[in-house]
């Protein structure tokens, strides 16, 4: 049932090209230039009139929410807030009738997310769910929703759920951008085509497995690791760090690269590996100067770069190349080598990859 893979996590990492495709199949019709999702079409007016979107989630799903914040604001120009469900529910939050609450959950059973939804409904907000498990509590409790089609995720560390959540949220943002006229027609059509190329590019990104394994062998005994990214890839830095800590028990932290100089830079010395997400699009030059700052303090640099990159290659100790895509879609690719890196480090450390200590697949208690 692991399909020839040693662990469910690895199987699920490798399923990503096909489950991303499953997630947009029937929804993204690039030849007609349309995106159709029943949960959105049926409630389009609500979305178009929304004054704010509040995303609630936990863990990896919260990271997908952060990526969505950047995408929604850029594409559809709707203000977005991303909240840990556990904080939101206990804060007496300000929720208005014109707010849409989007709950993201793989399992659909996370207690804090469920409680946040109930609170939002009591306050009159429209609640939209992005769940993977069909018929789950969150999918039933929400007013409408869109499923990710990731299939069962068995490994406790979430992988394919994350990329399919980002896929669904990108589709929604594009649909709203078209309806609101906040994106040019040419950009809109370009994104539809680029999204259709993502599964093949994820498959190509999976070819980084050997280099990820090699790098894992070098750093598997490090007690700490930093992950840095900017813009769309800041949440990917958080997710990369979470993946490493939860399955390998190495202390890891993700930061927006520019926050380094406000504290974490003090940690950097020759024994600190720093994973930097530095694709060519986006804030490339800024990330390059962050890499220089790390290098001048002798930190070890593992950089995720766009294929053909030369500038970062000169500075970094290791580079992992991924295919080119637009900045907004890059998290779907940059995430892949980070999943593989964590996986190999955990295996080499003899950890129980699919069932890490102290963790449960769905957290049904607060
Ligand atoms: C991380 C992980 C957890 C979950 C979190 C939310 O790999 O698995 O952080 O992402 O418990 O779970 P769901 O998405 O089921 O609500």
Automatic annotation (TrEMBL):
SIS domain sequence ranges: 43-182, 215-356
The keyword Transferase appears for this protein: yes
Localisation: Cytoplasm
Enzyme class: transferase
Keyword Cytoplasm (UniProt): yes
Catalysed reactions, as listed in the record: D-fructose 6-phosphate + L-glutamine = D-glucosamine 6-phosphate + L-glutamate
GO MF annotation, one: carbohydrate derivative binding
Active site location: 361 (for fru-6p isomerization activity)
GO cellular component: cytosol
A Gene Ontology BP annotation from the UniProt entry: UDP-N-acetylglucosamine metabolic process
Keyword set, alphabetical order: Aminotransferase, Cytoplasm, Glutamine amidotransferase, Repeat, Transferase
Annotated EC: 2.6.1.16
Function comment: Catalyzes the first step in hexosamine metabolism, converting fructose-6P into glucosamine-6P using glutamine as a nitrogen source.
Subunit structure: Homodimer.
Record's protein name: Glutamine--fructose-6-phosphate aminotransferase [isomerizing]
Organism: Flavobacterium lacus
Residues of the full protein shown: 250 to 615 of 615
């Amino acid at each position: 049932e692991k399909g020839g893979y040693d662990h469910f996590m690895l199987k699920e990492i490798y399923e990503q090209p096909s489950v991303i495709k499953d997630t947009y199949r029937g929804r993204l019709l690039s030849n007609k230039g349309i995106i159709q999702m029943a949960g959105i079409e049926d409630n389009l007016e609500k979305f178009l009139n929304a004054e704010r979107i509040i995303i609630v989630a936990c863990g990896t799903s919260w990271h997908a929410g952060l990526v969505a914040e950047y995408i929604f604001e850029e594409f559809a120009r709707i203000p977005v807030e991303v909240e840990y469900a556990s904080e939101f529910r206990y804060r007496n939050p300000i929720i208005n009738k014109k707010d849409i609450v989007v709950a993201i959950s793989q399992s659909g059973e996370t207690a804090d997310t469920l409680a946040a939804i109930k609170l939002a409904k009591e306050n009159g907000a429209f609640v939209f769910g992005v769940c993977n498990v069909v018929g789950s509590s969150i999918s039933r409790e929400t007013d409408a929703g869109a499923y990710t089609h990731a299939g069962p995720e068995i490994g406790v560390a979430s992988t394919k759920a994350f990329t399919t959540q980002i896929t669904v949220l990108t589709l929604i943002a594009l649909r709203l951008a078209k309806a609101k006229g906040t994106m040019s027609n040419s950009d809109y059509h370009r994104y539809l085509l680029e999204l259709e190329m993502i599964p093949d590019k994820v498959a190509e990104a999976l070819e980084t497995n050997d280099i990820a394994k090699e790098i894992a062998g070098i750093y598997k005994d490090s007690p700490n690791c930093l992950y840095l990214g900017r813009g769309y890839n800041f949440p990917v830095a958080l997710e990369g760090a979470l993946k490493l800590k939860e399955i390998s028990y190495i202390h890891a932290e993700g930061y927006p690269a520019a926050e380094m100089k406000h504290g974490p830079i003090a940690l950097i010395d020759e024994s600190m590996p720093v994973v930097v997400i530095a694709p060519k699009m986006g804030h490339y030059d800024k990330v390059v100067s962050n890499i220089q700052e790390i290098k001048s303090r002798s930190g070890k640099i593992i950089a995720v770069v766009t294929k053909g990159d030369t500038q970062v290659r000169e500075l970094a100790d290791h580079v992992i190349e991924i295919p080119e895509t637009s900045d907004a879609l890059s998290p779907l690719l940059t995430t892949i080598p980070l999943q593989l890196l964590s996986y190999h480090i955990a295996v080499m450390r003899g950890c129980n990859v699919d069932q890490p200590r102290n963790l449960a697949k769905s957290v049904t208690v607060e």
